[in-house]
Amino acid sequence: MEKINTLVIGAGQAGLALSEHLSNNGIQHMLLERSRIAESWRTARWDSLVANGPAWHDRFPTMEFEGEPPDSFPSRDRVVKYFEDFAKQVSAPVRCGVEVTRVSKNSKGPGFVINFREVKGVSDTVSCSGVDIDSSRKVASNGNGVGEIEALHVVCATGPFQTPVIPPVLPATLEDELCVKQMHSNEYRNPQQLKKGSVLVVGAGSSGGQIADELLRSGRRVFLSVGPHERPPRSYRGRDFVWWLGVLGKWDLSTVDPDTAHVTISVSGARGGHTVDFREYAARGMNLLGMTSGYRDGVLEFADDLNDTINNGDASYLAMLDEADAYVERNALDLPLEPNARTISADPECMINPILQLNLQEENISTIIWATGYRNDFSWLECDVLDDQGKPVHSRGVSGEPGIYFLGLPWLSRRGSSFIWGVWHDAKYIADHIGTQHEYMAYHLSRQREQ
Ligand SMILES: Cc1cc2nc3c(=O)[nH]c(=O)nc-3n(C[C@H](O)[C@H](O)[C@H](O)COP(=O)(O)OP(=O)(O)OC[C@H]3O[C@@H](n4cnc5c(N)ncnc54)[C@H](O)[C@@H]3O)c2cc1C
User: Which residue's CA is the nearest one to ligand 1's atom 29?
Assistant: First the structure.
């Protein structure tokens, strides 16, 4: 059976960042990727998506977005190219088209046994990704395309957003009954993809807000079910919100405030970047609704909470301006005043007379897009590292089972952990942890040889 020191599962930004640090620490490793490098950016995002943060920020410290103005928001495809280039820059030993199906403790020795299967059709795309695979590092499967590898360390870098979640509000038969198509935001590509008719978008985080805005601009009639959110200013006093989050220490927060754990962040880099303002969306014709709460006989029901939700979002926005102003004053920074940023427009009709019920047929709703997030799926991980709900138990990515690590999860060590720039720092911590263990083992083996 092939043996390797460290096996990394997933070649998205997390796996690639880790590869750089493992190489720096001299740790032999391999990345198994069931699809292609940065596959989530290729196929689980809509066509017009741009990075939520500007090019100077949403990147690894060791590589810039070459040719991209620092304050621009790189396109989805440019982000894919960035990660392909990065894989080449660090000579990441990636094996594409190999899916890990099981990780279990090695009953015959130290470490773990990793079962995998080759995914037909994907290996051929390795050359498309432009990364040369060292043939000695190719995994050896038997004739059936399955195989096993032994590793002392296994890093699960399989993504913060794995399995799309659609709340069970509507019957799965809705399409047959009312010709209403339901899809998750990860299936949405562009307005032309949707059937003619009005669209309901559920969820007003960064995905739902941007998709609803794009549909409205394309001429669709759009309903948006808005939940608790924060909507930071895209920029204030000449600095982007990612800068403000940085200087105000908010990226580094290490624990989620239980009161705001369910509060999503709505930001957008679309069309050069703008502050998400749901009142402004409503002024342009978007129908805002409260939280989607139930369904009966063709009628969707919504909580009477839109006013509170919008007002709370506005309050979070204004609070951030206050914090920014205080920071400017405290540090005597010369940044221009921006009093207009504090203008909150009047309540739109949908806040004054909230819509609490929507008859899907009467409103000609042909598509419902659920921008309602994701959950983890570690069902292939047969080690004692998950809680009763299947969530990883770890401290900064180090699990209680020596040798099993997690990387890229939201809040792994801090708020920035699942974002491009943040995962690089977590990856260094994990690689250093593996490096330290490696040194202890090297000492043990050298003493053993002497005896
Ligand atoms: C719509 C959207 C927009 C975002 N925009 C930004 C942004 O602008 N800036 C930012 O910093 N962050 C952004 N993020 C957050 C984050 O950067 C991305 O989700 C990013 O893709 C996470 O990288 P990752 O490597 O942790 O996971 P992923 O990119 O999901 O990579 C995980 C990889 O693991 C592979 N894999 C999974 N299971 C297996 C298995 N069993 N065997 C082998 N391979 C497996 C997958 O194929 C995948 O390629 C965005 C997220 C979303 C959903």
Answer: 12
Question: Is the pTM higher than 0.90?
Answer: yes
Q: pLDDT tens-digit profile of 260-297?
A: 778 899 999 999 999 999 999 999 999 999 999 999 99
118 close to ligand 1 (CB < 6 Angstrom): no
Of the candidates 212, 206, 176, 228, the residue with the CA atom closest to the CA atom of residue 368: 212
Over range 328-345, report the average pLDDT.
97
**Best residue for ligand 1 mutational test, from 148, 161, 211 (most atoms within 8 Å of Cβ):** 161
- CATH architecture observed for domain 2-161+376-450: 3-Layer(bba) Sandwich (3.50)
Domain 166-370 has CATH 3.40.50.1820: no
Categorize the per-residue pLDDT at 125 as very low, low, confident or very high, splitting at 50, 70 and 90.
very low
User: Which atom of ligand 1 is nearest the CA belonging to 408?
Assistant: 26
Residue with tokens 């993809």, as numbered in its chain: 193
Same CATH fold, 166-370 and 2-161+376-450?
yes
Give the mean pLDDT of 15-37.
97
Query: What are the boundaries of each domain within the chain?
Result: 2-161+376-450, 166-370
Burial 326-341 (b: 16+ CB within 10 A, else e): ebbeeeeeeeeeeeee
What is d(CA 110, CA 108) in angstroms, rounded to the nearest whole number?
Answer: 7
Q: Cα angle at 115 between 434 and 419, to 5 degrees?
A: 50
Model confidence at 134: pLDDT above 60: no
Tell me how far the alpha carbon of residue 346 lies from the centroid of ligand 1, in angstroms: 38
| Residue 409 CA to ligand 1 centre (angstroms) | 10
